[in-house]
Amino acid sequence: MYRPNLMFLVLYFSLECICLSQSDIYSLSYIYTALSKPLELPGIHEFTAMGLMNNRQIDYYDSVSKKKIPKQDWMREKLPPDYWEKGTQSRKSKEQWFKVNVDILMKRMMHNSTDLHILQWKHGCEIDQQSDGTLKFIKGTDQYSYDGDDFLAFDDVTMQWVAPVVQAQPTKRKWDGVQILNQYTKGYLEKECVDWLSKFMEYGDNEFSRADSPPKVYVFAKKAKTAGHVRLTCMATGFYPKDVLMHIKKNGVTLTKHDGVQSTGVLPNDDDTYQIRMSVQIPEADKETYECSVSHRALKEPIVGKWDGECCDCSSFGAVVIGTVIAIIVVLILVSVVLFVLHRRGTIVIPGLRTGDDESRTSSDSGKGSQNEGSSDIGSEEDVKKSMLPKGSG
């Protein structure tokens, strides 16, 4: 049976692999994702591969286009055609490798082919650019996951593979048995990956040297799913780099997860800045003081935004309905009064409504006398007001 969380994993991995993006921290990583079967969904392919530098995609390949392409102008301008040709052939080979190994793992896990299964591989490196311009290796990553769970990971200190699940043990024994393979993996993470990252840093120097950008902070509340409650949200957006500290406070006291605080975590915007939201559910009638505090290195001091106690959508529908009803009542009353006054002056004649001036005329002309008295369709102004008031209004 199809497992919905797997679809989330496919979409999630395009963002999960975004690495640290501080001004002096750089990272280069490559992500490969293989599905056990096609999904027939736009943008979702049986196999995808992408390279990411810091928070930006630099190249891409999928099983439909079957071509490695640049995703940054400086990649297109600085790297020769044979780089992309060799990259395309390399990724075609990996696509076949993943296809075979997805089948192997499905059998090892005793999974059937009707379900969707995902094999993912992430490898790369992270460095710290020192004040003198030298690069310091921080860590390397080479790990595999199956259906979103850790399957295998390389420890570059011990040069051994770590297998957190029993099904990964055969692969661990096989790969650890070829020491030259582990030596190559360590060498790639600590040397070759760093060399490529250094080169890309030089190529994309202007792209990755953007100035710090402070956050804009918004505090608002909307009706919650729970009756009588609202969800108070604190949003900070447009900041760079991604490191930010946000708190929701009640009467000056910071609220935590135990108080029901939820967070989206830091997410990327389309313009290479970031955003984050935190929210908490509170009673609609709560009159305590709530505020949002945001700290960022582009700020000299934290921004504090206070909630004004208003709810964006709590009473909007009721207010519109009540306002409309009142407006209709007022209009009808005015029309009724005007018609009644004009009728009394003899300017207009309203069928079924008689005044002292036209009573004799009506009686003599129709022969019905005053038999219609008290049966007016409109009645007096006071009667109109009573008849048009909503029930239960008093």
Describe the structure in your own words:
The chain is of the alpha+beta class and 394 residues long. It has three domains: 4-203, MHC class I-like antigen recognition-like (Murine Class I Major Histocompatibility Complex, H2-DB, Chain A, domain 1), CATH 3.30.500.10; 216-306, Immunoglobulin-like, CATH 2.60.40; 316-388, no CATH class. The chain has eight helices and 17 strands. The strands form three sheets. An eight-stranded antiparallel β-sheet has the order 4-3-2-1-5-6-7-8, sandwiched between helices. A hairpin with a 7-residue loop joins strand 16 (290-295) and strand 17 (303-306). Helix 6 (316-345) runs antiparallel to helix 8 (381-388). The radius of gyration is 36 Å and the shape is globular. The chain starts with a helix and ends in a 6-residue tail after the last helix. Mean pLDDT is 79; it is low at 1-23, 316-321 and 352-394.
